[in-house]
Amino acid sequence: MTTPPPPPGAPSVTATAPEHRFPCEACGAAMRFDPRLGALVCDHCGHVAEVDDRNGPWGAPNAIRELDFRAALANQLDAADLEETQVFHCRSCGAEVEFQPGVHSGECPFCATPIVGDSGPSRHIKPKGLVPFAVSEADAREAMTRWLGRLWFAPSGLQQYARKGRRMEGIYIPYWTFDAQTRSSYSGQRGTVYFQSRRRSDGSVEQVAKVRWSPARGRVARFFDDVLVPGSRSLPAEMVSGLPPWDLSRLEPYKPEYLAGLRAEAYGIELDEAFHAARAHMDQVIARDVRFDIGGDRQRIHRIDTEVAAVTFKHVLLPVWVGVYRYRGEAYRLLVNAQSGRVQGARPWSAWKIAAAVLLGLAAAAAIGYAIALNQGL
After folding, report:
1. Which helix (H) or strand (E) holds 375?
2. Where are the domains of the chain?
């Protein structure tokens, strides 16, 4: 056991909880966060409230604070850094979803499957920061439509079909970031390329590349800042890996106002597992540093011993629009990076278009072969 994590299983998606509902000062209706304005908006009367308003009813902003990794592994985090939620399990995609108190059923935002509450408590490390939504639902849908339009061998009319689908869900996806100071000692070999002349059988001379190897050893050091690791299990890894780049300079201290009208998924990948992924990334970068330090034309690495110190982490939320549409009975999911508009997703294929392309290719190959035969016959 590592962090005070959720029970084993899929992550939870936290619906807009009561503390995330902000009444309009003008009319009392619930406000929502508007990505285009970067502020809270009341759809009932049009009133706008700034999120970072220090004189507003929701308090002053706080600095983003790193947490100590070793303390988290030892379950020694402050109680203020932890939270507990209630979750529903989606039997279709494995996600666990939380809705507001009094709601006992709903729809999974990841696969559009109806879910019924079989809830249980889940303890999590609170998010410390987030990147606010910068792409609106309308802009995300337009990005999705353009992406579908560029697909090869997609069924005809897919853009129009998807455009008429259900609204996209705005969800903050959980990530971990890690900072660490590393010092590495290494041993290996430096290769210097030189050339020798060799006479061919026809009497000509060619230059043959040879490598002269010499021992190399040394030390490298690097400070890693904000190594980013996804914390979600409910979304396909290949889709999530295609969402970056993320501009983490846009991270804001966590404020529930940013979640008004949106959702936030609780992490399903625990802290120690995420750090293993971060270490794999660090090791790749350190190996690159070692090769650069060895120098020469070629490098061989025999051993790298790395000391990792001063490890800190943050739990942060990054914005994604999730779209689910059904085509001929099959559900397809699309993700839109709500900071950059980058699209990742699944798509249907048109068997007719693929067959036509194969036939055209065969016909073209046959025509080229016939033309070559005619040319040789002449």
Report:
1. helix 351-377
2. 12-22+58-347, 351-378
